[in-house]
Amino acid sequence: MQRKVRSLLIGTVVFMMIFITACSSKSSNEEQGSGTNSGDDVIKIGLLASLTGPLEAYGNQTVRGFELGIDYATDGTKEVAGKKIEVIVEDTETQADVAVQKATRLLEEEGVDIIVGSSSSGDTLAVLPLMEEYEKVMIVEPAVADSITGANWNEYIFRTGRSSSQDAIAGAQAIADEGVKIATLAPDYAFGRDGVAAFKTAAEELGADIVTEEYADPAAVDFTSNIQRIIDAKPDYLFVIWAGSNSPWSQIADMKVQDKGIKISTGAPDIAALKTMEAIVGMEGFTVYHHTLPDNEVNNWLVEEHQKQFNGEMPDLFTPGGMSAAIAAVEALKKSEGDTSGSTLIGVMEGMSFETPKGTMTFREEDHQALQTMYSITLENVDGFDYPVPVLKRELTPEETAPPIQN
């Protein structure tokens, strides 16, 4: 198989790792054959996730959701088209070079038919070229970088996770309007800058004015100068994009941003982070998921089964995404009658709709991005919860939050 190795411009080390693994993969394939699974009665799915490192919680949520999704989609049999499904989980450690190593091992040694993942956009971007080289489908979940279904996309890539642009459009829908002045605060790396760029485009299309953009060190613990510049700009809203435990919420409260007439808006995060957001109760924003928001049979099953299997715990922000990826894989394999070849799966998955905890998702034919429901919310204290809860203002339809085609 001819190998195509493309630099993703994410660093010399990652480039060389992709090059070396691609070359070694070619040699292995020549010796061992096509690299397909070891038996026609088994379908192997490799799941890449951050099970250690800063995104460990997200990775664990995805794995839980994926395993529950396989159970749901197969009625507990873990079989499709008469074949057993075997899931092999690998920890990327949130390092792109490790993700390439693990993905190569899954493809070469395990002979997986489909890859799912990963928690990190950097990990995922590093793995994308391998899928084209091996002609295997990858279902991306939950990495958000626009370039995954944009500049770095190839036809073997499908995404059940939402993109940065979908987040941005949902955020803009929640607060932007003609004449509204908005400031932004985000971490100074691709996640933050891409998110702000997409939000700015969506907000300005709705008539809003972005009066200042602040970017902070991703490892920062002191946001004083950033917040002061935002206060000086006198916006109507501060829209915050952040991921990680070193959040700016306490300093935003300490500097009395809301007392100065500036409303806070953000994407409501996972439960652990919601517990740190008491200071901004009342904020208007959006969320990808909270278990109280969707009203459908799949989500009802997820909530009930998750509590049964995990000591009463509720599914969290990335659990439904893992479940959605599993459902998409099983539905595609049903339609292909168990044929795992990349070309066949591409044919059945393009335009395919499937039911998830967030309602109906559809893989858009042009870029294979799943169009999906998002939620416009306010953050409120609710009886029975020990943290502020996203309360539904309205569902944002898949059509409303459809991102631009960028590939």
From TrEMBL:
Keyword tags: Signal
Keyword match Signal: yes
PANTHER family membership: LEUCINE-SPECIFIC-BINDING PROTEIN (PTHR30483), PERIPLASMIC BINDING PROTEIN OF ABC TRANSPORTER FOR NATURAL AMINO ACIDS (PTHR30483:SF6)
Protein name, UniProt field: ABC transporter permease
InterPro entries found in the cross-reference section: BCAA_transport, Leu-bd, Peripla_BP_I
SUPFAM superfamilies: Periplasmic binding protein-like I
Species, as recorded: Bacillus taeanensis
Keyword Signal part of the UniProt annotation: yes
Similarity field: Belongs to the leucine-binding protein family.
Domain Leucine-binding protein: 43-379
PROSITE patterns: PROKAR_LIPOPROTEIN (PS51257)
Lineage per the UniProt record: Bacteria, Bacillati, Bacillota, Bacilli, Bacillales
